């Protein structure tokens, strides 16, 4: 099986041809994408071309666009089976780690393999804080915990190339979009520890802190929006029904209002979730029956929590918000496992 190292590069330095040569000497096929670096960098890419295949983009399109350009080139010029390992051109990924991720990807052809950097004092403060915030937001949005959501060192088999090309994003948000969609469909994920390497102030990084961070977090918010929208709708409907009704006793009133609000918000959530499933890399039917069973369990849990919070004297509105929050966090991982469970056929045949 061939191993292909894909390196998107924008205005690199001498480390790029050195890395290409080292990888070639280890028997790797190397594909470099010149992401519109310009004439001043032509000599560097010509040097790298002695050890790699170089694909040149006329204009700078962003890291996501460069990765997809490289993947299209690989799909057209290499015959399966093969693995693809994406690595950065700024020296943050050492030879040993690239080869280790590649080796793991060969063993786990069904999985997305990511190289996870160790969080330590060598990491610049902006990277450290960004990684921490993104990990928490990623978990709340997907129910999956990934130690390093921003790593560019990733490996996968040829079977995942169509999926990788279908993911939206042209800049740094592309890599997060890949993880988001992969996690939401419960795709196998393997983490490989790698070194944390930064040179000086990391001035070769072309990450724009404000603009790119906004794009990245907008991606997380967009994915989490259906859940938060339905959360707010559930609370609002419950309050309108409860405080606007003059029906039977308090206990039944509370229960019926909570059931009606849950039914409305749950129906909307199912429709939004079903649409999201149509974008999954391994399409499967999300049946109403499976969703209803999961939703009923979640509703029962937050109903019990609601009764418990009110029994402790918490104001009703705050009790409802607290009950919904607690039940959401407790059931986040089980929901993902149950709703996005793969069939045996998919596990056997892999993702196409």
Give a quick summary of the entry.
The chain is of the alpha/beta class and 352 residues long. The protein has helices at 15-25, 42-48, 63-77, 95-107, 125-142, 161-166, 173-184, 209-243, 250-277, 288-311, 316-339, 344-349; strands at residues 2-9, 29-35, 53-57, 82-86, 112-117, 154-157, 189-194.
How would you portray this structure in words?
This protein is α/β, with parallel strands linked by helices. The chain folds into 2 domains: 2-207, Spore Coat Polysaccharide Biosynthesis Protein SpsA, Chain A; 224-346, no CATH class. Helices cover 57% and strands 12% of the residues. It has 12 helices and 7 strands. The protein has helices spanning 15-25, 42-48, 63-77, 95-107, 125-142, 161-166, 173-184, 209-243, 250-277, 288-311, 316-339, 344-349; strands spanning 2-9, 29-35, 53-57, 82-86, 112-117, 154-157, 189-194. Strands 3-2-1-4-6-5-7 form a 7-stranded mixed β-sheet, with helices on both faces. Helix 1 links the parallel strand 1 (2-9) and strand 2 (29-35).
